[in-house]
């Protein structure tokens, strides 16, 4: 396994542990440059946008940033922007603010009137016009209003966002507000797809094989040199998430006596092995939770809708 890159080590021990679990370590120079820039903003309240194809690890990296900075004691509240309404945003933030208010380690410090919250806007490019308008107001006012009681909470807000598209192109197409784009992209990074970082594939394969063996309590298998070459030649349209699935399925369909894999299983299986620990949004060690995560409880109307928010919070597996 490659040693921890110096830029990532600067995030701290906790971040390094999470990074090893989530395979954020990389030999690719552009990712290491991204890590260097992130170190400078890990404690900042300036919004940060992570862009990249599906499966490139945007939410995983957002969680590492959250766990490494001064907002690590706050709840990491995920808003699935493709389906969330402005009322659901308000309710999720209000619930997280209530849970965080008065915490001894709150980054709000002595400002007791403010509740510290980390907000992750998942697929922000898919936000409805109404949600975009509410996000503008949230970033300006740093406050949230309960959709039923109309009670107001002041927030010490840390905003992280992800996008599967180039948001600037969405602005040009009229699908995304220019003023929101300016506020979210003060700090922005594009994560490269796996086909552009093939030097990392053997590292991923070893990690996935080790995780598989640990789950089944058996010795870890390895992949032959021709099998690794085949994996490195593939373009991985599903990126890291697809790589995990292919490795686990190749291991699942072999005889347990085989310790060196020389055949890659590219297709589907009737009952595929589920490996949630490295999927975007899952937690360290496979249990689906990281320090500071918030499992929002189901709430009454209008949060019959809130179940959709809850579905995007990390869950136990």
Briefly summarize what is shown.
The chain has 317 residues and is α/β, with parallel strands linked by helices.
Describe this structure in words.
It is a single chain. The chain has 317 residues and is α/β, with parallel strands linked by helices. The protein has two domains: 6-193 and 289-310, Rossmann fold; 195-273, Orthogonal Bundle (Helicase, Ruva Protein, domain 3). The protein has twelve helices and eight strands. Strand 4 (143-145) and strand 5 form a beta hairpin. Helix 2 packs antiparallel against helix 4 and helix 9 (201-216) crosses helix 11 (239-252). The longest helix is centred in the middle third of the chain and has 16 residues, at 201-216.
